[in-house]
Specification:
Layout: E1 4-13, H1 20-38, E2 42-50, H2 54-62, H3 67-84, E3 91-94, H4 98-113, E4 117-127, E5 132-134, H5 136-140, E6 147-157, H6 163-172, E7 177-178, H7 180-189, E8 197-198, E9 200-202, E10 211-212, E11 215-220, H8 222-227, H9 229-232, H10 240-246, E12 251-255, H11 259-272, E13 281-284, E14 287-289, E15 292-293, H12 304-311, H13 313-323, E16 330-332, H14 334-363, H15 376-397, H16 401-422, H17 424-427, H18 432-453, H19 458-467
Length: 497
């Protein structure tokens, strides 16, 4: 029986311009989704947009648009980028959709009925940019902008009630927060008393949000609203069968900057609503530029569209997945991108395909030669391909994607060495059968490598498999059929000068 695999990205703030951070998380979700589909797992991949809150309201007012019209104008930027990145999401949710509003109101009512919401007057420091109350200590950090003193009545969620239960869950489920240093960060945070969470905003200052079902003078705090998207998309309160089949999420993929909202706010909300917690929250690092955090003010933000237009989508996907160790920060430079492209993709992968297909076209009437009888070299490559498959599965399951990719590339490099050692371009003149065996072995190794890399580079690997006239999508040795006619193809990865 195949497993259910439900993976989510954060829903991105509609006012943001899509940048490398958005692209990375979404590509990561896409790679893991494609990988699980290849395994035959029942896969569901969700991404989307967070469209409520004060900043959206203000931006719309400045443009003399309604908030919804503003959101409708901004959303296509993300949809266009996901299309260019070949993202295979199963759903794209927007928090302004009727289905989502319905679920938010349902959850609010459940939490209220369970006695976990109360009304109280609060006076304190409020960050307009973050749309939340902050402590004096937080204000002193200089991180928060547009701080003002605010006194108003609001509804509060008894988050503190679930503090010990959350600690117990984290300790008894080691995979719940990954990587381990992020788990420790949250456990450290939970050593201090947990404050209750303000989950409303009065309509007198903010009208753009989901109205509380029990008090029409308030709208829902944007984070309480946004997090609920993860259950909206899989049928909560609407499609019981779908929800039972999809939930809990296998992974919530997030950046480390939104760890607290996902690892504290979200699970306590679910506890209050009597909903099972997600299996794992995985917080990845940031992409840096020249070892500095990317920011608009520094002018060092990478536009994914520019990279794609210049170098292609698959090399961009490959670089992001290969360079970042999940859970750590990574540094992006054009120089390192070009170096990785030329060494891994042009020299190792693309060159091997070119050699194999050119020799088959020239010497075997474009027909894949017979594998013949293995000697020790061919047997070694076959055995390495089998261990490679198992290693890649294990590394993917442990979220060590960069190591999985490197294992595949090491295998491809070993096949290049095998070609260099045997020199079939010379051997074909003296022993055509033996040269054919070498080319078959190299071609079959390429086929398996391409299948394993297909979640990362779905387009270029599809071209490779088509060139080899291979329709099979399994990694068992022998999928390349002798006698099949291979096809002409353009250079897979033209070298960047």
């Amino acid at each position: 029986m195949k497993d259910n695999f439900y993976i989510t990205t954060p829903i991105y703030y509609v006012n943001d311009k899509p940048h490398i951070g958005h692209a990375y998380t979404t590509i990561l979700g896409d790679v893991l989704s494609r990988y699980n589909r290849n395994l035959g797992n029942n896969t569901f991949f969700l991404t989307g947009l967070d469209e409520h809150g004060q900043k959206v309201q203000q931006a719309a007012e400045n443009l003399k648009l309604s908030p919804k019209a503003h959101c409708d104008k901004m959303a296509p930027r993300f949809i266009e980028l996901w299309d260019k990145l070949h993202i295979s999401n199963d759903d794209f949710i927007r928090t302004t959709e009727a289905r989502h509003k319905k679920v938010v109101k349902k959850i609010l009512q459940i939490v209220m009925d369970n006695g976990d919401l109360y009304e109280a007057e609060y006076e304190g420091l409020y960050s307009v940019s973050e749309e939340r109350f902050i402590t004096e200590k937080e204000a002193e950090t200089g991180v928060y902008r547009d701080i003002k003193t605010l006194k108003e009545k609001n509804y509060f969620f008894r988050m503190s009630k679930y503090q010990n239960k959350l600690i117990d869950h984290i300790n008894s489920h080691p995979e719940f927060i990954q990587p381990v240093h992020r788990k420790n960060e949250i456990l450290g945070f939970l050593k201090k008393p947990l404050n209750d969470l303000c989950i409303s905003r009065p309509k007198s200052r903010l009208h753009w949000g989901i109205e509380l079902p029990f008090d029409d003078q308030y709208v829902t705090y944007v984070w309480f609203d946004a997090l609920i998207n993860y259950i909206t998309a899989v049928g909560y309160g609407d499609d019981k069968i779908m929800f039972q089949n999809k939930w809990p999420a296998s992974f919530h993929l997030i950046g480390k900057d939104i760890l607290t909202t996902h690892a504290v706010y979200w699970p306590t909300m679910l506890m209050s609503a009597n909903i099972e917690l997600p299996k794992s929250i995985f917080a990845h690092g940031w992409w840096l530029m020249d070892e500095s955090k990317m920011s608009k003010s520094l002018g060092n933000v990478i536009n994914p569209m520019d990279i794609i237009d210049d170098y292609g989508v698959d090399p961009f996907r490959y670089y992001l997945m290969r360079e970042m160790v999940l859970g750590q920060d990574a540094n992006f430079t054009i120089e390192s991108f070009v170096q990785r492209y030329n060494s891994d993709l042009a020299n190792d992968f693309g060159n091997l395909l070119s050699r194999v297909t050119t020799l088959i076209h020239k010497n075997y009437f474009s027909a894949i030669p017979s594998p013949g009888k293995f000697d020790d070299q061919e047997l070694s490559i076959k055995l390495n391909s089998e261990s490679l498959y198992n290693n890649v599965i294990n590394l993917f399951s442990e979220m060590r994607l960069n190591e999985a990719i490197e294992e595949i590339m090491q295998f491809i490099r070993s096949v290049n060495k095998y070609m260099e050692f045997n020199a079939p371009w010379q051997m074909v003149k003296e022993d055509k059968i033996r040269a054919g065996q070498i080319l078959y072995t190299a071609g079959e190794a390429l086929r398996i490598g391409a299948i394993l890399l297909s979640p990362v580079m779905p387009n270029r690997t599809a071209i490779l498999l088509d060139a080899l006239n291979s329709e099979k999508n399994d990694c068992s040795w022998g999928g390349l059929k002798s006698g099949n006619i291979i096809k002409k193809h353009s250079p897979l990865f033209p070298r960047i000068k």
